[in-house]
């Protein structure tokens, strides 16, 4: 996770830089707590988590001198407590062959990239993944998925431009069943500006693949871009209304993202966070480790 730590150094600076200012000078009084709360909110942890952390400090340390180190440790522990229940690796149930994963998320979130990274993880595990280019309306998206398929060394099922995505998904699942693929990853469109159309498109994909496997999809995962801050939180709400979400993958935690958004997501929705994206390369997908992440976040 050294890359994650490096990647998070900027968000960490956001929180701990403030802490230094607040605590080296004075006791843990009302003003100091208020400042700390503002900093936690500014770091995207969300008001609920910030309030709870402050309450904890108030009940145990109020009026006392505290060191930076103590504040950091307490913060890391509190954050880890929020993150631990959601830090769950994505387990493939091998009883399903193929195990069907529907990947959803807005354009630009890193969905296609994450599909490629996951395929590579499965290949390394000795499994046979197959990819379905479900965003049939964007030629660039299809091409991009083909490139990822080459990198990961797996088959990509595509269809001519403007084919019904549900029909493509059906063909892909049928092919995956025939060839004995272990995992089918279905990439989908992310045109959120027409929510109703997107919802219908996703639901139709699900309806149609269930004709071949009534238990599919076995996981519906939402990819979120951490650099979009609170928008990421909003997107979970929107996609939850469209489909049954089973888990999240948070990308771009290597960039200027405030990693605090991950804490807000965990607190608000409690959905499993299966992995985090830490770069544009195929190997830049990390399991989500609550304790490591919390430590990296507070620096
Ligand atoms: P999609 O529209 O959701 O399928 O998004 P893409 O997979 O096309 O990704 C959009 C952009 O984000 C591309 O330039 C990717 O290289 C980049 N990207 C995806 N994941 C990550 C990540 O974890 N870190 C960084 N820095 N960039 C990423």
The averaged pLDDT comes out at 90
Overall structural class, as computed from helix and strand content, comes to: alpha/beta
Tell me the total number of β-strands.
8
Indicate the proportion of strand residues.
5-15%
Amino- and carboxy-terminal Cα gap:
13 Å
Principal-axes geometry comes out as elongated
How do the strands of the widest beta sheet line up side by side?
3-2-4-1-5-6-7-8
Biggest sheet character: 8 strands, mixed
Helical content class: 40-55%
Count helical runs: 12
Order of helices and strands: HHHHHEHEHEHEHEHEHEEH
Radius of gyration over all CA atoms, rounded:
21 Å
What ligands does this structure carry? guanosine-5'-diphosphate
Care to describe what's here?
Residues 4-83 form the Signal recognition particle SRP54 helical bundle domain. The protein has 299 residues and is of the alpha/beta class. The protein contains twelve helices and eight strands. It has helices at residues 2-7, 9-23, 30-42, 47-61, 68-83, 111-124, 139-152, 165-179, 195-212, 230-242, 260-269, 290-298, and strands at 99-104, 129-133, 155-157, 183-187, 219-225, 247-251, 273-277, 285-287. It is elongated. The two termini are 13 Å apart.
What's the topology here?
Elements: H1 2-7, H2 9-23, H3 30-42, H4 47-61, H5 68-83, E1 99-104, H6 111-124, E2 129-133, H7 139-152, E3 155-157, H8 165-179, E4 183-187, H9 195-212, E5 219-225, H10 230-242, E6 247-251, H11 260-269, E7 273-277, E8 285-287, H12 290-298
Parallel strand pairs: 1-4, 1-5, 2-3, 2-4, 5-6, 6-7
Antiparallel strand pairs: 7-8
Residues 105, 107-113, 144, 190, 223, 251-252, 254-255, 277-280, 284 line the site of guanosine-5'-diphosphate (GDP).
